[in-house]
């Protein structure tokens, strides 16, 4: 069964548009879990445009106390350090929150959204050390990658437990050309996932997946988890948050 991890960044972005605490990311997490989500994802950025450090800690406490079977996934660049605005640095957040999974993404501090995976053409000793440090904290570590089989070998060599396939290009092809136009790209994701299976590396995926393009993508060999935020919130404007989460869960749980 493929797990849905609901990314709450957009809930926090809406909350930050006004003073106060509404909508609450903690309440949103409760609704998502009740609707069938098996994970909660956040991507705290140094500029705190959406998820803030206090949200990370509040969600960590909620899941640990009330939902111990639900995975907490924190995404971010391990090189993002502390700043005077109150961001303690990515590594410090992970150390304090102790998530079940850490997804490492090569974003710059001011990047709008994730748009590429790690360049592992050469060994990155500091990345390997960071992976080991987070694993010592009890976290599974996933590396954000473009769909290229050779990158899976490199991710394993760096010590990663899983990869998260960057699905933005596939989603863009699907939106503009339909499944026929996206098929060649989808085949590349399949080959990458197959290589991961051969190496015993787990496969996650995320970025711009929605209810339409997820249908063919969920057949990816060995797919364990998808992280969805932006599309889910957009759909929720029409259908309601709980119902939208439930619809995504039904898509992932359906067997062909």
What does this structure look like?
The protein has 256 residues and is of the alpha/beta class. The chain has one domain: TIM Barrel, CATH 3.20.20.70. Helix content is 46%, strand content 16%. The chain is globular and about 45 Å long. The two termini are 12 Å apart.
* Strand order in space, largest sheet: 1-2-3-4-5-6-7-8
Distance between the termini: 12 Å
Number of helices: 10
Task: Please tell me the overall pLDDT.
Answer: 95
CATH superfamily: Aldolase class I
Measured by DSSP, the beta-strand proportion falls in 15-25%
Q: Unreliable segments (pLDDT under 50, ≥5 consecutive)?
A: none
Quaternary form: single chain
The CATH top-level class label: Alpha Beta
Helix content: 40-55%
Number of domains: 1
Q: Largest sheet, if any?
A: 8 strands, parallel, barrel
- What string gives the helices and strands in order? EHHEHEHEHEHEHEHEHH
CATH topology name: TIM Barrel
Radius of gyration over C-alpha positions, nearest whole angstrom: 17 Å
CATH architecture: Alpha-Beta Barrel
Tally of DSSP β-strands: 8
Shape assignment: globular
- Structural class, from helix and strand content? alpha/beta
In short:
An eight-stranded parallel beta barrel has the order 1-2-3-4-5-6-7-8, surrounded by seven helices. It is an alpha/beta fold and 256 residues long.
What are the key terms here?
alpha/beta; TIM Barrel; 10 helices; 8 strands
